[in-house]
Amino acid sequence: MMQSVHDGAHLRRFFSSVAASAIVAASLVSVPAPAFATEELNALVWCDHTDPALVEPFEKANDVKVNLKVYEGTGAALSILDQSRPGDWDVLVIDGVDVHRAIDLDLLAEMPADALPTADIFPEVRMEANNMKDGKTYAVTEKFGYNTISYDKSKVDPKDMQDLSVIWSDKYKGRIALYDYYLPMIGLVGLGLGKKTADLTEADMPAIKEKLAAMRAVSKQVSDVVSSQTALATGEVDILVGGGEWITAVLSADKPNLDWTIPEQGAVRWAQSIGVMKDSSKQDLALKFVQYIVSPEGQARLATSSCYWAMPANSKAGEHLTDQQKAALRFNQQAEYLKKTQLYPIPSTELDQQFQDAWTEMLQQ
Amino acid sequence: MTATTLEDADRRKAWGFAAPALLWTLAFFVVPFLFMAAMSLWKREGREIVRVWNLDNYLRVFSESALLQGLVNSLEITVIVTVLSVLLAYPLAWIIAERVPKGFQRMALILAILPFWTSYVVRSYSWLLVLSKNGVINQMLTGLGLIAEPLEIASTRTATVIGFVHFFVMLLTLTIYSNLIQLSPNYRRAAADLGANAFQTFWHVVLPLTLPGIMTGAFLTFVLCIGDYVTPQILGGNNELVLPQIIMLQLGRRADFPMAAALSIILMLAVTAAYVLCARWLKIERA
Questions:
Q1: Number of Cβ within a 10 Å radius of residue A284
Q2: CA spacing 20 to 30 A to A135: which of A37, A42, B69, B186?
């Protein structure tokens, strides 16, 4: 898996709220824990795990202090692990498409399949091909979301958002922001061209470049998560291509006019997984933490974490979400959405270079 | 003790005093710079960095329009920002030095540099809100009936320039002010005695004597502006990439460290060229 995949995927979520910056500034976040916790658990995570509302119930129930370190991209996580002593870390949260990389580096421990609520996890995000190897389970999907279209429903016609071709049409010229992460964006372009993300090849590059140029021509800006979210929230733009529930759901209470959808042609899906570190000396406690995170209660808290919201992988989490939260996450439409979406492209090194060149050219147009 | 022995002792003492600074410079500038220069002559193939000396990265910069445009954008924006900042900072520094009573000058300077106390990133995002379609400026202009449709300022080069100029006017005000207050009033009296009017005195006496302050500030502005990544990233809306953004793309997405090193060397050459142009005014000396 390429470095670029990890960094971009992480950055999308890492910056998914302004609050995330503050969280990361602290870098190593020790969530308040029981004053006399008998044990400690060290977890290398994404920023959504640092919400005290998520971790505190586990700490109290198990008399443990959970030390959380937020990292930037799988490459950074591997670098941290490389500099750590074996056993320093007990739990790892990782991009779903990178689990095999961690398995190949012998970082993850096998987890007993019957200890996980696999049957409750949405079938499309179980991702056995990613989370398992040789029939053994090394990670479990904990959260997922979409790179699709976010929009201001008070300014645009929601029906228009059902057609992916809106992202390069003139109708909303100058009112569109493009999310600055080339992989899901090229995946979306591919879907608009009628190609599956996994089927994109070098031969598709001319058509992709043409559509990227068309998107650029009608867009107002190409921006990172915070700038995109700000632009949408302040009315600078009315549509964010590449956005999704992770952009608008966290704002749903304050900005009910912001919405998102999956167009008819489909959208791109991302997922994050969690596993137990192989060298952990607290395998049982680490597994207990993983079990808590993927339990319906833990999943509801993780889905609505203060850093960013996204869909819980466990379908039973809905029992612990409010109607407003479910509406913001489109919880009840997941069956339809999951069918219409695909994992973002995972290109070869050579194709990845071409994707990046095309994206850079588009930025300079 | 002979004179030669004394000279040797002084020389040893001088080297002793200079040694920490020299070692620091060697360890944290010379060695990393040489490593970066060497890296720029390697290249990335697939996921590997191939350690074969070549000029491919430099040739690519000048043959690929997207990369070359980054350099052009950086130079254009930096020159515009530097000129605008000087034009705005000079009158401000002059007013503080000449028109504000001595007892209030310190307060005036503090007020002038107050925005320095805010985080650079926070300040850039604040500007984004001010300049946005529904921001303070557009609301005021539409409220006054001066414009019918909001101006498109955010996510443009104009927004980047405004963000930069706001920051660098503060810096230039300090360097120009420090130059102005050192200027003896006798120069102006002499010019007046010789029949020069206020403009002639300024143009032929004050301005040339404050050029070192202007050029020092302008050079610092050039260096900081051409190397800045945050402001164009936040305020420019990625509608045009500057060189530091392209360097970040090489590092963050492609892990193409040789290309990032080559672009950084080009950036350093641009700064060196600016230094050469300003060098005659950048002498550190006391009157």
A1: 9
A2: A42
